[in-house]
Structures are given as C-alpha cells and as structure tokens.
Amino acid sequence: MAEWKGDDIAPEDIVIEPEHGEDRGEGKPEEKIAKMREELKVCRQEKQEYMDGWQRAKADYVNALKRFGEDSKSAEVRGKVKAVETLLPAFDALERSKEHGELPEGFTAIAKQLEGAFAALGLEEVGKVGEQFNPALHEALGQDAADSAETDGTITAVLEKGWRVGETVIRPAKVRVGHFASE
Amino acid sequence: MAKILGIDLGTTNSAMAIVEGGEPRVLENAEGARTTPSIVAIGKTGERVVGTLAKRQSVTNPLNTIFQIKRFIGHSFDEPAVQKDKASVPFEMHKTESGGIEVKMTEKWYRPEEISAMILGKMKADAEAKLGEKITQAVITVPAYFNDDQRSATKAAGQIAGLEVLRIITNRRPRRSRMDLIKRRMRRSRSSTSAAARSTSRYSK
Q: Which of B21, B53, B132 lies nearest to residue A135, judging by beta carbons?
C-alpha cells in the first residue's frame, strides 16, 4: 500500500459525504432506480407529447403558408367573380331586352361596353346551342325531344348565359337539353 | 398526426369541417361551395358524378340520380315511412333478401350505405385536395331520432368510403325556425302560467 504523502490530512480522516437520499433511510438502490426509471418514463412521454404537438403545429404552419399563397393567387379571381356577380343581373336584363328588340341604340352601346369590360377581365361565355351538355359548365332546367341519337344530350336552348374565368365557373349556363327516345 | 374530418351528412346537403388551431373551419368543396348536395348520379357515358354536378344534370337523368338517400339508410323496405318516401322519388328501389333496400343506378343495384359512401368519398377527396394531406379518420353527425340500425349503417357508409369513423355524433338540437321557438316558448309560459294559476286557485280555496 502506497504511503500517504499528504501534508496534514490522514486518509482515515477523509469522510465521503453520502449523496442526496443515500444511507438516510430513504430507500434501497433498487427502489431508487425504479423511481428514476418511472420519472424517466414520464419525461419521455411528456417529450413525445411536446414533440407531437410541435410537429402538428409546424405542419399546420406549413399548410397555412401554402394556403395563404394559394389564397392570394385566387383572391384576384374571387374579386373578379364577386364584381361580375353583382353586374350579371343587369347584363342579363340588357341581353333579354336586346333579344326582344326593345333596346334603344344608346343602350346597345352600353351593352357592348359591358361585354368589352367582361372580355378585358378574362371572362368567357359558357353555353351555346348544339354543344354537348356538361354538368361542370351547364345546369339542365328541362328537356326537349331530339330528332336523332346524335343530338341526344346536346343543348337545345340557352335560357341564361353562363360565365367562367379560367377554370372557375362564375355561373353555369341554364339550358334545355335534347333527349332522344329510342324505341 | 392526420386531421380528423367532421362531416354533417345531410338529407339534402352535406358539409365538412376540421379543427385547426383549436378552432373549427368549414372546408369548401372542389366547386368552392361550403355545402355539397347529397346527390349521386351515373351519367349516360357511365361516369359517376356527386354533389353539385349531379344536381345540375338531375333533370336530364332522373332515373339514375339518387337523392335523399338518408331517408332510406338503415330502414327495412316494408316500413310505412319507406313506402311513403318511395312514392316521391323517381329512381327504382327494391327489397333485398334480408328485407333491406336497394336503389338502382344504370342497371346496378346499390345499398343506401354505398350511395352515402359515394357522398362521403367525394367529401374526403375534396378535403384531401384542399388540405394537401390524407384523411383517414372522421366523425359523422346523425339526427337525434336515428336508431341504432341507422347509426350503424351510417358508420358502415364511412367505412366503405375508406374512413375510420371515430364517432357518430348526434345533432342534439333539431333545426327549428325562430318562429317555432317563439311559439314553443309562448306555449310553455302559457302552460306554466296556467299551472301556477291552478295551484294558486287550489291554495286560495
């Protein structure tokens, strides 16, 4: 055994202080380990919950950013749609008057101006007689007898014009559709 | 964790919502509307359309356009209510071997659950497109008067649509007009007044 070379402290004088809870009647090491394991389990569960919550919040944030981007893109279209929707009844009234030949010359020019404005906004007219009926663009309000199988399912009359901007349908065209009864 | 879709599967229209940041948000369908008509149709070319598009073509194709299927879900064919409703719809219906109902769309027979599943499937697809993530779980609302058969049939419809139905929620409060509510309150106050009057008169004797 090596000789002690300390100045004034002998090895027997050194006292190792017990750690917190050790040798103080607070439980055996096995119990302490079990307790610590339990604490660790709780900590891990909490960590997982926080992690899940954080991941969900992050995903929500990313999705929200994406949606904001899409929303700002479609805001222009929606603005046009709203503006046009308010003007459409007046335009329809002008169109109907024109069909009946009741429109004075000055009003015809106004109707043309409106048509020009719609065209400038990128609006396209939907629904023409002879077109194949498509529920994505047209709304059927009635049926007419068709002469042949070829004209079955085609538009026979447009009761109200439809409008769209790009892929967005502002209003479907209200139409009557041909029906061929084969016997 | 994927989002849970809340679906109000209605007789005439259906709607869907999710909870985002603790707040509910109603989702628009592919057509941009907050409600989807509960209508399914198979067109002449064999394509299946659901919702607004099915409604728009219903006049041209009444025999193959199924609507108000909620009136028949979870019912037996012989029930008087079914026989009454059957008279008001243009599509064909028949009784199955087990006494249930099947409706006809282009030479093929479908159970009401399958038709409801087509509506739920469309809502699921629209929600997925809107949210950019897959939806696998849902809660579906049913009216308070729905019995166990109707509830389990609604749940089955969700499962056919590929959704794990976590819960079937009851619409506790029936929809009533404001006038109905006022009338009800007046009737109640009148009856309580007359009851109070009766008890008062009893004591005064």
A: B53
Q: Centre a 10 Å sphere on the Cβ of residue B84 and count the other Cβ atoms it contains.
A: 10
CA dihedral of residues B179, B185, B186, B189 (deg, nearest 10):
180
DSSP state of B88: T
Task: Give the span between the Cα atoms of B111 and B107, in whole angstroms.
Answer: 14
Report which secondary-structure segment, H or E, holds B116: helix B112-131
Output the tens digit of pLDDT for each of chain B's 205 residues. 678 999 999 999 999 999 987 889 999 998 888 999 999 999 878 889 999 999 999 999 999 999 999 999 999 999 999 999 999 999 999 999 999 999 999 889 999 999 999 999 999 999 999 888 899 999 999 998 899 999 999 999 999 999 999 999 987 655 556 666 667 776 766 655 455 444 444 444 3
Q: Which residues of B touch A141 (CB under 8 A)?
A: 59
Would you mind telling me the total number of residues written for chain A in this entry?
183
C-alpha to C-alpha distance for A105 and A89, rounded to whole angstroms: 20
Nearest Cα residue in chain B from A57: B21
Residues 6+ apart with CB under 8 A from B103: B66, B69, B72, B91, B92, B93, B109, B110, B112, B115
Chain A residues whose CB is inside 8 A of the B53 CB are 135-136
Q: Is B63 helix (H, G, I), strand (E, B) or coil?
A: helix
Chain center to CA of B115:
11
A144 with A179: CB under 8 angstroms?
yes
And the tokens for B192?
A: 């309580």
Q: What is the 3-state secondary structure (H, E, C) of B170-185?
A: EECCCCCCHHHHHHHH
Give the pTM. 0.71
Structure tokens at A105: 């010359």
Mutate to test the interface with B, among A139, A150, A168 (most CBs of B within 10 A): A139
Give how far the C-alpha of residue B161 lies from the chain's centroid of Cα atoms, to the nearest Å: 15
Chain A contact for B56 (CB, 8 A cutoff):
yes
Give the separation between CA A85 and CA A163, rounded to whole angstroms.
10
Q: Which secondary structure element, helix H or strand E, spans residue A76, and what is its range? A: helix A29-99
Contact A148, A126 (CB under 8 A): no
Could you say which of B32, B53, B60 has the minimum Cβ distance to residue A177?
A: B60
